[in-house]
Amino acid sequence: MVATGVFPDSSSVYLSFSPDSVQDALALNLQERFIPDPKKALWMAIVIPGGGQIYNRKYWKLPLVYGGFLGCLYALNWNNTMYRDYCQAYIDIMDSDENTKSYENFLPIGYDVNANIGRLQEIFQRKKNYYRRYRDLSMFCMIGVYALSILDAYIDAELSSFDISRDLSMKVHPAVINERYSAMRGSGMSTASYGLQCSLYF
Prior knowledge:
5 helices
């Protein structure tokens, strides 16, 4: 039940709600608000990458999750391809077989290999190790994106039931602090001091 009225000394209109109407409004608000289950969100994120975000109805996070996966997958594929090519070139330049010369694909036409064989062996070894390191790093980054998507889905579902209503507030306002047991009481001096008071409302 709702009743309306006007303050006697002003033109402001106030509303009066009965307890039954407030409880009905709160129950209706809880029914309309979707509160995900954290455990279900966790398992959805583990089984399907981005599934936890879909379950939590946070669709705007999907481009971030899948973009991270695609970026790591591209880096992994690129570094792995380069590692295989340089690894084969290093194997070919280290052996004495004249039929295995895949390393020539990395050199300019007419380059004198025999005059720079030692330097080329060192370069191909360094390149092989370089791309192997970044291939492994790309793999760890992909695992990190996967773990972050799971963590985000679980925390998001947990915080969805956190109370952010207007009843939670903090106010800071000036206050007069009276010293009831001050040693200067009775001496004629003022025992009041001024400061800021912080109040939390639940």
